[in-house]
Amino acid sequence: MDNRPGPRVFVGVDRSIPGLAALRFAVAEARRRGTDLHAVRVASVLTLTETKEIDAAFAEALGGFPADVTVHRELLVGAVAETLARRARNPEDVLIVGTDGAGRWHGLWSRSISRECLRKAHCPVLIVPGPQMAIEVRRRRWLPHHRELLSGLDFDAPIAQS
Fold first, then answer.
1. Distance CA 130, CA 134 (A)
2. Do the Cβ atoms of 68 and 36 come closer than 8 Å?
3. Which of 92, 77, 84 is nearest to 117 (CA)?
4. Is 69 within 8 Å of 31 (Cβ atoms)?
5. CA-CA distance, 123 to 4, in Å (whole number)?
6. From its phi and psi, is residue 78 left (phi > 0), alpha (psi between -120 and 50) or beta?
7. Alpha helix locations (H) across 36-152?
8. What domains appear along the chain, each with residue ranges and CATH number?
């Protein structure tokens, strides 16, 4: 006899725009599957405000907790991707996370939690992008701050040969 629980839906909770989109998607997925939702907040250090962060995320994404889905709030300590992947450990589970759509260039310089979850999880991982408007705003914020780095470069100048 198999003692594993049935299929479960896990979502990594943060209050970023892609995180809120993932939360909305996770609630819909839990409804579709007819199962509970495990809202998981991972931090390096637990504080008293962490449960309030989960509550605030539900308030911002959905106006509060859904009446038709049972939500289990979970607070865990550790590296985010590794901890989420360890929590959603059964092949029947699904892990839902948001992504900011930063792309490959950003991925070279920083760790992507969504990519790390894909590599480490033993269950399906659904990566929910943030709304297109949020992605465009992020890109527009980056360019003005880095324009001075690019301004002195002459892309038409010949490359020096040694």
1. 6
2. no
3. 84
4. yes
5. 14
6. left
7. 50-62, 80-87, 103-109, 113-120, 132-151
8. 9-145 (3.40.50.620)
The number of residues in the chain equals 162
CB 138 within 8 A of CB 106: no
> Which pair of tokens denotes residue 40?
């998981």
- Give the tokens for residue 29: 């997925």
For tokens 């970023």, name the residue: 16
CB 21 within 8 A of CB 129: yes
| Whole-number Å distance between alpha carbons of 13 and 113 | 12
127 forms beta bridges with 97
Side chain identity at 136, as an amino acid letter? E
Which amino acid is located at 160 in the chain? A
Question: Which residue type occupies 79?
Answer: A
| pLDDT of the chain, 162 residues: tens digit per residue | 445 567 899 999 998 888 999 999 999 999 999 999 999 999 988 888 888 999 999 999 999 999 999 999 999 999 999 999 999 989 999 999 998 655 544 444 456 888 888 888 889 999 998 776 555 655 565 455 445 555 555 545 555 555
**pTM of the entire structure?**
0.75
- Which two three-digit tokens encode residue 154? 């002459």
